[in-house]
Amino acid sequence: MNAQRSLDLAPEFNARVLRDVPMSKHTSWHAGGPADLYFAPRDIVDLAGFIHHLPAQMPLLWLGLGSNLLVRDGGIRGAVVATHGGLSALERMSATLIRAEAGVPCARIAKQCVKWGLGPAEFFAGIPGTLGGALAMNAGAFGGETWGHVIEVEVLDRRGVRHTRVPGDYQIGYRQVQGPANEWFIGARLKFARRAGVDGEAIREMLEKRRETQPIGQWSCGSVFINPPGEHAARLIESAGLKGFRIGDASVSGKHANFIINHGAARAADIEALIEHVRRTVETFHGVELHTEVRIVGEPAGGATPRPAGGAA
Ligand SMILES: Cc1cc2nc3c(=O)[nH]c(=O)nc-3n(C[C@H](O)[C@H](O)[C@H](O)COP(=O)(O)OP(=O)(O)OC[C@H]3O[C@@H](n4cnc5c(N)ncnc54)[C@H](O)[C@@H]3O)c2cc1C
After folding, report:
1. Which residue of the set 28, 67, 223, 251 is catalytic?
2. What percent of the chain stands above pLDDT 90?
3. Atom of ligand 1 minimally distant from the CA of 68
4. Nearest CA to 175 among 220, 98, 233?
5. pTM for the whole structure
6. Closest Cα to atom 53, ligand 1: which residue?
7. Each residue of 184-215: pLDDT tens digit?
8. Is 16 in the active site?
9. How far apart are the first and last CA of the chain?
């Protein structure tokens, strides 16, 4: 057994921490090896207690819905904290202010804001992750961006202590957020405008438009690469002749060239090799270096960590 797995945890958590959990069950690519430890907290207090008791040297990975995560086949050494399900509070604080915990799915925020007559929050319906993941990525869709609505965030540090931070504490860019090290999001206050007469139709139309242009329903992580300034990664990939290019059971989508599809049996190594192939081919064809939007984490099967593909590993 791995040294980290054999470490003693506090008794109140020992029975509730799962061991050797396949991350393929918790990522939208349905690929990836086992996490040594996997903890799904009941709520924020429970999570703070767990982190507080976790040995300080134990590596930690926070997980939302795994919709932007490639976990390598050797899995995760250390502990995974899964926010979805436990950190699930969503409430209206005032006429235009809401508070959501990190595990709330973005789609739920979109729907609830429509019910409350608040917006524009419909873009959240296009992001199949949690608020925590959306804060970490500055996720956006249909012209809206997560941090465009943030008033303040609640974070937990590595000792399990809660802090409140404001957007000025972070460097926020296109699909990029940098803030204090060793802190993770547990919730946020978001501001919207009052919009009488908004109904669910706008969401339905957006999702329909998306279904026409993206391979929704197939196993993917959405866009693999960040769009370079003034360009579309999908256009560069398609014009380099890569649509349909396949490694193992993974291929570049024929519908949207910035999506990589797992057709059922792809290993993370196949997906990562395909990412690297696309990156190199686009560089050769167009002289443009693509950087990954997806986060690549974990250990390769039985060996050393390969050179990261793209810039966001
Ligand atoms: C079909 C499809 C379509 C998509 N379309 C879009 C789109 O239009 N726009 C867009 O922006 N994205 C899109 N994505 C990508 C993805 O949904 C977003 O990046 C989303 O914000 C990830 O959220 P998650 O909860 O799944 O995060 P995860 O994939 O679980 O994690 C992503 C990263 O965030 C970190 N993280 C997760 N939770 C926390 C937390 N609480 N605190 C700190 N760090 C945390 C993780 O450690 C990891 O580094 C799409 C994905 C798919 C599969």
Report:
1. 223
2. 88
3. 29
4. 233
5. 0.95
6. 221
7. 999 999 999 998 777 889 899 999 999 999 99
8. no
9. 27
